[in-house]
Amino acid sequence: MERRTFLRSSCNACLLVASGFLLPALSGCGPGAYQVFNTEVKDDHVEVPADAFAKGPLVLVRPKGWYYSIALRKKEDNTYSALLLKCTHQDNQLTAASNGYSCSLHGSAFNPDGKVIKGPAERALKAYTVTTEANSIIIHTNKA
Known about the structure:
Blueprint: H1 3-18, E1 35-39, E2 45-49, E3 58-63, E4 70-74, E5 80-84, E6 94-97, E7 100-103, E8 109-110, E9 116-118, E10 127-133, E11 136-140
Parallel strand pairs: 1-3
Antiparallel strand pairs: 2-11, 3-4, 4-5, 5-10, 6-7, 7-8, 8-9, 10-11
């Protein structure tokens, strides 16, 4: 394969990764090692097993039927935060990384707590209430 052709095809794959379409399939191109957890919303909550954090402090939760993922992050004090990965500027899917979240559409960036660190977005990400029960983390999707 010619170098130019390889670079073009590689860059296209990275664009798909950045937009969130191929993250589970291309872990080597993605922003880091984290678990992707597919689940369903039941009674206005999502349940994630605690062992989903075996790869690190970030789990991408993909509720069935939802367009946007939820970033579930384990903090150093053993509490959890859950943020909807929907850019508050123009509703684009965000890409997760160890230092926060970014939007490939217009360049908005958010810190791990969901606060805007670079515009054009002006509002923080939607946060969900998180509780723990036994060996499960519960994201309450009806509460912000």
